[in-house]
Amino acid sequence: MALEAYSNDPTSSNCQRLNSAAEAYAETLCPNAQTAQTVECSSGGEDEGGSEGEE
What's the rounded Cα separation, in Å, for the pair 48 and 50? Predict the structure, then answer.
């Protein structure tokens, strides 16, 4: 599942997979919709050390 993969490893490639899965899902629900709204995926380096929880 793309959402689980992104949750466990929030890399740019997993973000792209999640967006693709979301678009495919939206297309099954609303085949006549023009576009699906997705998030911008970072194309830069992947965060390894992370700053989660730091404020």
Answer: 6
